[in-house]
Automatic annotation (TrEMBL):
Pfam families noted in UniProt: DNA_pol_A_exo1, DNA_pol_A_exoN, HRDC
Domain HRDC: 164-244
GO MF entry, a single one: 3'-5' exonuclease activity
Ranges where the record places region Disordered: 239-263
Protein's UniProt keywords contain Chloroplast: no
Source organism (scientific name): Aeromicrobium flavum
PROSITE patterns: HRDC
Protein name: 3'-5' exonuclease
Superkingdom as given in the UniProt entry: Bacteria
Keywords: Exonuclease, Hydrolase, Nuclease
Lineage: Bacteria, Bacillati, Actinomycetota, Actinomycetes, Propionibacteriales
Length: 343
């Protein structure tokens, strides 16, 4: 973890050596934290007892300014005319001890965040968007991470190749076995067993330990270490009764994928087109990316099943309840309300 504070320099702190850093939070006090893409860092920092009292997210600020590129290196180059070295960005940061060049790279990553914040803030003020940014930053203070996915195993790459419910059960069983091993070893699941291997095993369904051992997916040393776990997972899936097999499609209480709307509900599909058009117009008028103006998920939910009351006040209340910020509600509630009405 890299910390830089004006007048104090840069500090590198190893959270593995100090699993509870709440005392460091006391030292931070109510000072504003400057982070880039805060949603990536906040859940990890909370795990070691660190939570900001105030926040400035340079990446989110760049989005509100509708800059074409909002990565840290791009913003530093745009505002400060400097290039950030990124040669160790893909390194294995679980390595201990960390090599000196890696430590220097980590320190330089936060070297100019203070100056970058000032430059970005000046543009926000000039664009009249500093109030919007403050609302966005304040909302991030309660961010704890994305909501848990229902049936996360369904996001296995190439799962669309699976044609039977029994094979889906094998994917699910192998996915959970791999996830448990990865959690125990504190490593990325893909290092334990690649998604491609899970799909291949589900398709082949080896019916004996010997068949599994000789399967091409087990040639690598990594997967071979856990042969018994994989075979047990496959056996469990093969032994399930038919009524416990997963369905081919994921059930959801939310709207279906937009591509299916025309067949399922043409009226809703037409509403979605109208609402998206007005959102795009308002975004262009305010020089914003449409997804930062209003959550696309909120747009889909309103278009699929709009409230009985389509007045701007009712739509504003609906958006606020879903979590939209005040500035967003003020800009889009009227246009969306008008677009929801069937012409």
């Amino acid at each position: 973890m890299q910390v830089r504070r004006e007048g104090s320099g840069t500090w590198l702190i190893d959270p593995i050596a100090f699993p509870d850093l709440s005392e460091l939070g006391l030292a931070f006090g109510d000072a504003e934290w400057i982070l880039h893409a805060a949603t990536q860092d906040l859940p990890c920092l909370a795990e070691v007892g660190l939570r900001p009292a105030s926040l400035f997210d340079t990446e989110l600020a760049g989005r509100l300014l509708n800059l074409p590129r909002v990565g840290l290196a791009a913003l530093v180059e745009h505002y400060l005319g400097m290039s950030l070295a990124k040669e160790f960005s893909a390194a294995d940061w679980s390595t201990r001890p960390l090599p000196d060049p890696w430590l220097e790279y980590a320190a330089l990553d936060v070297e100019v965040l203070l100056e970058l914040r000032e430059a970005v803030l000046a543009d926000l003020i000039a664009a009249g968007k500093d109030g919007w940014a403050r609302e966005e930053f304040d909302a991030l203070l309660s961010f704890t991470g994305p909501p848990p996915r229902k049936d996360p195993w369904r996001r296995t790459s190439s799962i669309h190749k699976i044609r039977s419910r029994r094979a889906l059960a094998i994917v699910r069983s192998l996915w959970h076995a791999r996830d448990a091993i990865a959690a125990d070893r504190d490593t990325t699941p893909g290092r334990i067993l690649p998604d491609a291997a899970i799909v291949s095993l589900a398709t082949q369904a080896p019916d004996s330990f010997s068949a599994l051992k000789n399967d091409p997916t087990m040639r690598r040393r990594g997967p071979r270490r856990f042969l018994e776990d994989w075979f047990s997972a496959i056996e469990d899936a093969m032994g399930l009764p038919d009524d416990e097999l997963p369905t081919s499609g994921q059930r959801s209480d939310g709207p279906p994928p937009p591509r299916a709307w025309a067949d399922k509900d043409p009226v809703a599909a037409a509403r979605l087109v109208r609402v998206r058009e007005v959102v795009t117009q308002v975004a262009e008028q305010n020089d914003l990316p449409a997804e930062n103006l209003i959550s696309p998920a909120f747009v889909r939910a309103l278009a699929w099943q709009p409230p009985a009351d389509l007045s701007p006040d009712a739509i504003a209340a609906d958006l606020a309840e879903r979590g939209s910020r005040t500035w967003q509600v003020q800009l889009v509630s009227g246009p969306i309300a008008a677009a929801l009405v069937d012409p």
